[in-house]
Fold this sequence. Notes:
Elements: E1 3-5, E2 13-15, E3 17-18, E4 26-28, E5 33-38, H1 56-64, E6 73-80, E7 88-107, E8 122-124, E9 127-129, E10 134-136, E11 142-144, E12 148-154, E13 163-164, E14 172-174, E15 185-189, E16 197-203, E17 217-229, E18 238-240, E19 244-251, H2 254-272, H3 277-287, E20 289-294, E21 300-307
Parallel strand pairs: 1-5, 4-6
Antiparallel strand pairs: 2-6, 3-13, 5-17, 6-16, 7-8, 7-15, 7-17, 9-10, 10-11, 12-14, 12-16, 15-18, 18-19, 19-21, 20-21
Helix pairs in contact: 2-3
Amino acid sequence: MTHHVIAPTHESMVWGLLSAEFAPVLSVASGDTVSLSSFPAGGKECLPAESSRILPEYLEALDRLHKGPGPHFVTGPVYVQGAMPGDTLQVDILDARPTMDWGYVSILPLLGTLPDEFTDYQTIHPHIDAARGVATLPWGTEIDLDPFFGIVAVAPPPAWGRCTSSVPRAFGGNMDNKELKPGTTLYLPVFNEGALFYAGDGHGVQGDGEVCITALEMGITGTFRLTVRKDLKIEHPFAESPTQLISIGLDEDLDDAARQAVREMVRHLCARTGLSRNEAYMLCSLAGNLRVTQLVDGNKGVHMMMPKRYL
């Protein structure tokens, strides 16, 4: 196993899109670890007034990168040797930490869960104390940090072309799932040779739903172990923590996203146990917990948490 570090510069990032057409910024062997960083989503309108708090490489990325249809800075792609279409990329999330002493939260026009009710648009810049692990809101409330990457992805199928970074799909992407944090493993279906791994959209903390459109958007650095799995065939993202199985449903319709999350949990329960489909479905009703991942990314998200102790 070799450890690799991708420098947090605009040369290693794309802004606002995911695609199979970009040249890899790094090639790694299956099982290697990669540390990478990302900047807060959005443009210069999201920056704090104090210019001394803004990283020079962040400003350079804002000036040098061509913005795609989405707002997110995404690092990659990383080519994982041996990965081929039909394989699964196992992404072990090992670390996620702040790189800035500020983040932002916004209410933006026509976005969020209640866009017609919140038209007094506003951006705040909470102070991040990484040493204490808290963010302080302008009115004094302290919230515990729980950092994670909102976007973890492989490149979409070539036929899909350039996909906005905003909408999560079968390749992962902007899932904004706060459970995808250090200690969790994410499985992604591979659509291209080398898998072409991306990560970005740092979040300091987020509630399920992400209702106003943003989490605590911030600069983040993290480490991933990337492993090619030829023994595991999946069609949709799936995750697990040491204590939970986590199925992921993504759809424009919240009901259909919930159905997908339940369907995927049933499928994985049957694959991991001797349960029949009926038995797995009933277990989901007794012990599975459906949660609204996010309501604001085009394709809404629902995930199911299943305690492993019931397997």
